[in-house]
Amino acid sequence: MCLGRYSRCLISRLQSLHLQKRQLCSTATHNGKPSQPSPPPIQVALTESAGRGVFATRRIRASDLIHTAKPIITHPTLSTLNSVCYFCLRKITSSSQHFQHHNARFCGEVCKDNAKAFYDVERRADWSAFNDYCRSQGLKYPLLVKRLACMIISGAESADSIYILQPASLSPEMILEFHASGFLGEQLSLTLQVLNKQWYTNVLARIRINAFRIELAGGLYEDLLSSAAASIESEIAVGNAIYMLPSFYNHDCDPNAHIMWIDNADARLMALRDVEEGEELRICYIDASMARDARQALLSQGFGFQCNCLWCSSGD
């Protein structure tokens, strides 16, 4: 999913909600002590026509934080390799504290330690040809496949760790991304039987429609509206990431929920309007301000389905 910029109509809706200040940044307290976080008010179940979906288990109010999610896999864009954390994608500036480990930058010791296993595998090889190929062809998903392969070899993940996610139907036009598998196998010397071209195909098919494009709204902010506005102005994604639970959210051009990132790849799912118990929670995969035909074409080509939401059905 290239879930990137907010549409202007979405910003307008956020403005009408009068979202409460610091809702995402504060921890609830009881008698002066931090309260234990309650389970998210959601469940994954089958829908009538779109496979799995995420449903509310109780009433959720507009502007509520539904849940957070940490990524399974992240990777910076090739243009931001030297300006974001190699693990969590937090922006690194010349004045911010960071840790250099060989050719990678990390925002702190925690990210450096969390990345150690896969990065020790990754730095055994020269990735310049692989990166040049991906850069010249405008490819981003093979970078996530590379990181997952390194995680598997290091023992941090299993080879089938993302097989639960829905795969895309790969078209002949996607053949360029398969050429990258040759670089991958050559650099990692993938002698493990499971990490073969079939594994690469299966993983790439899932990453293609489940990857989120990470655009950071900014660190400290006054309210969600200012974060959304900052996201609109952002022209460059800092990287891409794969999540488990957020990948189960289906699409709607008029969504009742939204995914956003504040200062790193940790995702936050927010309610855009009141959601009743039993109602499906949906996010928008694209810029909903586009015309109906443009939305339909993008969803069909990029995600393999025709949208039948109320907006599209009414011709809006």
Summarize the structure.
It comes from Citrus sinensis (Sweet orange). The protein has 316 residues and is an alpha+beta fold.
What does the largest sheet look like? 4 strands, mixed
Q: Strand order, biggest sheet? A: 3-4-14-11
Distance between the termini: 23 Å
What's the alpha carbon Rg, rounded to whole Å? 20 Å
Strand proportion, as a percent range, falls in 15-25%
* Helix segment tally: 9
Provide the low-confidence segments as ranges. 4-9, 14-30, 219-235
- On the 0 to 100 scale, the average pLDDT is 82
Class by SSE composition: alpha+beta
What's the helix-strand series?
HEEEEEEEEHHHHHEHEEEEEHH
Identify the overall geometry. Answer: globular
Give the fraction of residues assigned to helices.
25-40%
Total number of β-strand segments?
14
Protein name: Histone-lysine N-methyltransferase ATXR4
Organism: Citrus sinensis
How would you sum up this structure, described in words?
There is one protein chain. The protein is built from nine helices and 14 strands. It has 316 residues and is of the alpha+beta class. Strand 7 (99-101) and strand 8 (104-106) form a beta hairpin. Helix 4 (141-154) packs across helix 6 (197-210). The protein is globular and about 55 Å long.
Fold topology:
Blueprint (H helix, E strand, L loop, with lengths): L7 H10 L11 E2 L2 E2 L7 E5 L5 E5 L8 E5 L3 E4 L22 E3 L2 E3 L2 H14 L5 H10 L3 H14 L20 H14 L8 H14 E4 L9 H10 L5 E4 L7 E2 L5 E5 L5 E5 L8 E4 L8 H12 L6 H4 L3
Parallel strand pairs: 11-14
Antiparallel strand pairs: 1-2, 3-4, 4-14, 5-13, 6-10, 7-8, 9-10, 12-13
Helix pairs in contact: 1-7, 2-4, 3-5, 4-5, 4-6
